[in-house]
Amino acid sequence: MRQCDVAVVGLGLIGAAALDALVRRGVDALGFDPLPSGAQTGSSHGSCRIFRRFNFESPNYTRLSDEALEGWERLARESRAALLIPRPVLEAGPAANELVAASRQAARAHGLEVPLLTGREVNTRFPAFRLDDNWDAVVQDGGAILLAEAALIALRARAESAGRVVADEVATLEPFPDHVRLRTAGGETIRARKVILAPGPWLTTILPELAPVLEVTRQTVGWFKPARPETVGVDTFPIFLLARGQDDIVYGFPDFEGRGVKAAPHNHGPEVAPDAWDPPASDAELRQVSEALAELVPGAAGPITERDVCLYTNTRPADRRPDAGEEFIIDRWPNSDLVVASACSGHGAKFAPAIGERLARLATDPGFRVEPCFRLSRFSAFPDD
Predict the structure, then answer these.
(1) Confidence (pTM)
(2) 30, 221, 234, 286: least surrounded by Cβ within 10 Å?
(3) Mean pLDDT (10-residue bins), the chain, 385 residues
(4) Distance of CA 314 to the CA centre of its chain
(5) Domains of the chain, first to last
């Protein structure tokens, strides 16, 4: 029977970052995933994600962003790969918009006053846009296009070169008093002292007790042939998040790959099963994005040239330590040798190095605790701290 100190189940960005943190510490660790880097399923697939320093979703994220940026920059140096393309981040919406206000507040909490702009000022600075004159907007520096596929390859490379990656699916987990026994789909048995679970939307398949607090939703993405290509290039066009309403947020990227402008709805799609990647994204599912670009970013508007499907896995609102949901779970599983990670929520990828460090410490340092906002105990279904 093969043995290791820590096994990591699921090697998307979060699991791969945890495995990399363990390998860098010299921990005897193994990672398991049947999917290779670049596979077109899994929460981490696709070429890019948005990196933002100040996050309207939660003020808790700025520290994570700063830690993650250090991790991405270190990984880029060590792997000699370009992983971040710095770009400003434009966030905008009708006057007194909550998204814009929350983003400014997150920056203000860390000593930075981000000027409030009007839609007219945005249109002058970025000619691809046609925002209403009375819209509020902020343009924050410190943003970047995270080259997610390249980052995943770099995170897994060190472990792969050391023979620490097992390209197989974990079929069963069996807890014992002092270890966890894993059996792969290929029939191999592994004894691990600790196990980090980061399988993305498949987490509730392994731990059904999490089903009441997690939801998996289908998210569609499109690439649009720009009407005015000269206005949406990587040197002239920002990353953007446009909030036309409470549940009507569209985000997008410059045309940095020559594929067109990538854009998608940020609001949640229908709840689906963990492996519901089909059918392909339809025109109807992308109509909200097409209409938003035509109305607000005519330089980027045009026919859909490519399309994709992603899955978000989000928490439902907590009850013991109330939050609005859409949060991460980063914690030890009660009365076990398991560590649980669920951060595949549409805004978790950017934080992978910081989350990976926390998972590695949870598995190796008995005295370490994560921030209360990420603990299972915020749900009354789990033991209180």
Answers:
(1) 0.95
(2) 234
(3) 96 97 97 83 88 87 93 97 97 93 90 94 98 96 95 94 94 94 96 97 95 95 98 97 89 97 93 88 95 98 95 94 91 97 90 98 97 96 89
(4) 11
(5) 2-46+149-212+319-378 (3.50.50.60), 88-144+215-315 (3.30.9.10)
